[in-house]
Design a protein that fits this description.
16 helices; five-stranded antiparallel beta sheet; 19% strand; Rossmann fold; Beta-Lactamase; alpha/beta
């Protein structure tokens, strides 16, 4: 995410007795889009905290008249949602670590060099974490709200069907809900919706924004062969007006003409399908359908849309369980699960499986001197470099605080070593952060079956290789050497 798109939503107070430094910090933050204020008087701070509490309070420990603990407790009594960034001498860092559970987001050295930039970096990372946290809370609220709507619709539908004998031949609402909830994918759910409106000719066109196109993927009442390769590309102008057109129940002219000519939908009508507020496609039907068929379609769509929204939210929640917050790579839990599957597949196909473990050199020195915010930004940048170097079937993970892992199916130890060296050189030749910071990495490589015999030993041997080369000074790769007693389960062809 880009925090600059959202910085205006955050209020930041800077509290320090150093007038020049505080004013400079306030200007730096305001230029970045934050609603920033500089306060040097304790009484004024007290008043402002009570009247308009900020999201973030940046304060200098040297400014405090009393104990740090008293200050923190007092602020949290006023508003326990205020988060802190402390500016302090290096000697106090260990003490300040004890306040992490009291809303401390970061601690910054009070050295004068580039302090405004360092404060801005810390504020950026803190606000990014808060924004994502707010998003996750909203996601769970949306999920619960959708489930509640689903329950309400279910209850109302059961009551209504008791008074409608003509609906007796149709599956009950509980059965239809169960049918949708058993779907394994979005595509499966779309097809189940179309199956539920038998007798009505209806098509689904998937929206591909990257190529400005609608492509037919599903249909009811139309032979599957008739929709293969059918689609319509929009002009740039039509893309701009698409949202407004759909809101008015209209379609782009060229798309509408194609539907009339190819499928005799005259006039064509469309129901847009959204997921996570993004257009995913259109259900298209004929405007000449009788009112009973239209009522059946819209009734079924209401139920389908609630189930579809619930499905999308559940999948998004599932993603949170397997994703690392900082790097947006998969996390260690997912890595442990997938490694057993990957080794089993490699054994079955008699194809090699390699992994490359990567650590940032001087990781803890960077963390202690520049702070967690800079550390996280460097990890995120490193993860981006790794992702850009990956093939389609490769997967990448954050498996420890200072360990990223590349899983490379169908890749021998030689190929993995070459890949690792390529990544090392890219990182070595790149500059990170706005200040042009340079970093280096160490990489450990292992491969099944040439160097080990299981998912567990594949992980362990790569970790040993990484630890060995990191201890030697880093900025190199190390290929694990198997013991002479090791016998591969199958031979890997020479490259």
């Amino acid at each position: 995410m880009e925090i600059r798109d959202h910085s205006s939503q955050f209020t930041v107070y800077v509290f320090t007795s150093d007038v020049d430094q505080g004013a400079a910090m306030k200007v730096h933050l305001s230029q970045a889009g934050y609603d920033a204020y500089f306060i040097h008087d304790p009484e004024q701070l007290e008043q402002r905290l009570n009247d308009t509490p900020p999201h973030l309070l940046v304060f200098s420990t040297a400014t405090l008249a009393g104990a740090l603990s008293d200050f923190v407790v007092h602020v949290q009594k006023i508003n326990d949602e205020i988060r802190f960034i402390a500016i302090s001498s290096l000697s106090q860092f260990e003490i300040l670590k004890q306040y992490e559970s009291f809303g401390f987001m970061d601690v910054i050295s009070d050295e004068a060099a580039a302090i405004e930039s360092r404060v801005l970096w810390a504020v950026d990372r803190a606000c990014e974490k808060m924004y994502l946290s707010f998003q996750n809370e909203q996601l769970f609220e949306d999920l619960e709200s959708t489930k509640k709507q689903l329950e309400d619709v279910h209850a109302a539908a059961v009551k209504t069907m008791q008074h409608q004998e003509e609906e007796a031949a149709r599956p009950s609402f509980p059965m239809r809900i169960a049918e949708y909830r058993s779907a394994q994918s979005k595509e499966d759910m779309i097809q189940r919706f179309l199956n539920g409106i038998s007798g009505s000719r209806c098509l689904f066109f998937k929206f591909l924004p990257s190529v400005r196109s609608f492509v037919a993927t599903h249909a009811n009442g139309i032979d599957a062969a008739q929709i293969q390769g059918v689609g319509s590309q929009l002009t740039t102008e039509e893309m701009k007006d698409l949202g407004s057109l759909l809101a008015m129940g209209l379609l782009p002219a060229k798309f509408s003409s194609m539907l009339v000519e190819a499928f005799h939908l005259n006039p064509p009508k469309a129901i847009p399908l959204y997921g996570n507020s993004q257009l995913e496609g259109l259900f298209v039907y004929s405007g000449s359908m009788d009112s009973k068929a239209v009522a059946q379609l819209t009734d079924e769509y209401t139920l389908f849309n609630l189930c579809y929204s619930n499905f999308v939210l559940e999948k998004k929640v599932d993603a949170l369980e397997v994703q690392d917050f900082v790097t947006e790579l998969y996390n260690r839990n997912h890595y442990v699960k997938i490694m057993e599957e990957e080794v089993a597949r490699a054994r079955r196909l008699k194809q090699p499986l390699a992994i490359v473990k990567i650590s940032m050199d001087d990781f803890y020195e960077i963390e202690s001197s520049l702070g967690e915010a800079v550390r996280d930004e460097l990890l995120k940048s490193l993860a981006t470099v790794i992702a850009k170097s990956s093939r389609t079937n490769d997967t990448n993970y954050r498996t420890a605080a200072n360990e990223l892992t590349m899983v490379l199916p169908h890749c021998s130890k030689k190929g993995a070593a070459l890949r690792a060296e390529r990544v090392r050189r890219v990182v070595e030749g790149s500059s990170f952060l706005d200040k042009g910071m340079k970093i280096s990495i160490s990489l450990g490589v292992s491969e099944y079956p040439s160097l080990c015999d299981s998912a567990k030993t594949l992980d362990e041997t790569a970790a040993k290789a990484l630890a060995h080369i990191a201890d030697k000074g880093g900025n190199k790769i190390c290929l694990y050497k198997a013991p002479e007693s090791h016998k591969p389960e199958f031979e890997v062809p020479a490259e």
